[in-house]
What does this fold into?
Amino acid sequence: MLLKHLLPLLSVLLAAASVSAQAPATVHLPAGPEHKASAVHRFLFGRNWRAEWTTAIDAPVVALDTIYGGLVPYQRSGGGESRSLRLRSRSGKEYVLRSVNKTRSNLLPALLRRSAYGSLVQDGVSMSHPYAALALPGMLDAARIPHAAPRLVYLPRQAALDSFNDAYAGDLYLLEERPTGDWSDAAHLGGYRQY
It folds into this structure.
C-alpha cells in the first residue's frame, strides 16, 4: 500500500532531476570581461565599447548535435583575431562558429605578448563593438545584398565537439552559414545554387 503512494512521488522526483540535469536554454555572461578598465585607463586610451564588452547578456545555449539537423566540427579556422570552427551538417551544408571575443596576442612576436605593449595591442579589441555583426543583416536585406545571417550562441562542453572541446567550449560565438555549395533555399544568401 505504501509503495502505491510512493510511486507517483518517485516519478515526479525523477522527472525533476532529469530537467535540472539538462543544459540551460540560455546563459548570462559578458563577451569580454577583461576589457573593464579604470577611469585613468579609459581617460588615456578611450572609453571605446567597454560597456558593451563587459555587460552580461543572455545568449542561447547551442547543442551541435541538434541544431540544423546536427552539425559536426571538422576544422579549426580563423584569421589573426578570431577563433573559428568549421562545421558540416548531415546534408552537406557548411557553417562556421566565430568567437565574439578576439585576441591579438598571436599577431605579436612571443617576446611582446606579455609586455605592456602586448596589453595595449590587446586592449585595442575594445574599439570594436562585440555584436556589430548582428546589426548588419537587416541593412543588407534592405539593400538586397546577399549575406550570412549570424546568430549569437553560447557553446558549452558537449560530446558533439569531440576533440575541439578544450579549445572552443565555454565561450560566445556567432554561428553562421558558410556560403559554399547549394544554398538555393536561403533567400538571404541570394538563393544561389553554387558559390
